[in-house]
Specification:
alpha/beta; Serine Threonine Protein Phosphatase 5, Tetratricopeptide repeat; six-stranded mixed β-sheet; elongated; Tetratricopeptide repeat protein; TPR-like_helical_dom_sf; transmembrane
């Protein structure tokens, strides 16, 4: 029964490949019981979808009525836009909650950074310990300085390298050297560049980015990256979960509840509409930190901010998406949403 439900759900969500779709259609034609089960599930989903649309729309209308009473013109216009968005909803999305036992303001990000941070070993240069090093070569000088812990010299060398050799190695180790030298904003920028433009060092870059954001006091941005690592990451998954549970007091993922949510505002920076006048050989935003932020709303009219260091392509107002919401305090005060994409 459960296998059938999973298969039907995958079919309705468009998650089957071509061969699986053909097999599914053949089974619908040849198996009357399976066809009946399919029709029942489809009907339930349609009914639930309409209920969600109705609840979100009514919640937003109630808020608009309240705003009209207060005669707040700007917000009134915004809520009318939200109502239009809600009316166009066609899908259902899951919203997972974590209960936060103590407010994040009580957590010392610098202390967490100090407990978990250590510089990443150099695996990029190919320099073997004890071997002769050609220090006339810029790359060798930069990575040799990194190995010696001469991070200011390494930063100077790697900063020059990324001008001519834009790759994950150079950006990642430049970010680490900048953490070591205290050039925090530059470190955040360069680790984000690795995260968004390359396929190697992505988990490492996100882990060090999260720690650096904690140290910098950007707690909610750090949590977004830690949640992402704990859900999707291969490396640093356990460390991320440990920080979320032991340092911030979040519940286990198995204790979540679900309900629908809609994106009511989504902003991406840098703005793609501004063109491709950035320092990148392929016209991408490779040398700029890419982020995405905005607001989602559930069917009860509760709004939650979200932030992503890995922007979701083509995310726009009116979309529905799966996310995790971290709530503040035992009583579930307003929290932050982290989109899973």
């Amino acid at each position: 029964m459960k296998e059938n439900l999973d298969l039907i759900d995958a079919y309705l969500n468009g998650n089957l490949d071509t061969n699986e779709m053909l097999d599914f259609d053949d089974r619908l034609k040849s198996d009357p019981e399976f066809q009946l089960e399919f029709q029942e599930v489809k009907l339930i989903k349609n009914i639930t979808r309409e209920e969600v649309k109705s609840r979100v729309l009514q919640s937003l209308k109630n808020q608009e009525a309240s705003i009209q009473t207060l005669q707040i013109t700007k917000t009134h216009t915004t809520m009318k836009k939200y109502i239009s968005i809600a009316a166009s909803l066609l899908l259902i999305v899951s919203l997972s909650y974590f209960g936060l036992f103590s407010g994040t303001s009580e957590v010392n990000g610098s202390k967490i950074f100090g407990e978990y941070y250590e510089a990443y070993n150099n695996i990029a240069s190919g320099i073997e310990r004890g071997s002769a090093v050609d220090l006339t070569n810029l790359k060798n000088r930069a990575y040799y300085a990194y190995d010696l812990g001469s991070y200011e010299e390494a930063e100077r060398g790697l900063s020059q390298l990324v001008e001519t050799e834009k790759n994950a190695d150079n950006y990642f180790y430049l970010g680490i050297t900048q953490i070591e030298t205290g050039n925090i904003e530059a470190a955040i920028n360069n680790l984000n560049i690795v995260l968004n433009n390359y396929s190697s060092y992505t988990d490492q870059a996100q882990w060090y980015l999260a720690l650096t954001l904690l140290k910098n006091g950007s707690t909610d941005e750090a949590l977004s990256n830690l949640v992402d690592l704990s859900v999707k990451g291969e490396s640093y998954k356990e460390q991320s979960l440990e920080i979320l549970k032991e340092k911030f007091g979040f519940k286990s993922f198995n204790e979540t509840e679900t309900e629908p949510v809609v994106v009511v505002e989504a902003v991406k920076r840098p703005d793609p509409e501004l063109g491709n006048n950035w320092d990148a050989p392929d016209g991408s935003f490779v040398d700029k930190r890419q982020v995405q932020f905005g607001v989602v709303m559930n069917s009860n009219g509760e709004a939650f901010d979200f932030f992503n260091d890995k922007p979701i392509e083509n995310l726009k107002e009116g979309d529905v998406i799966q996310c995790i919401v971290l709530t503040r305090g035992k009583k579930g005060k307003k929290g932050y949403a982290f989109l899973l994409g």
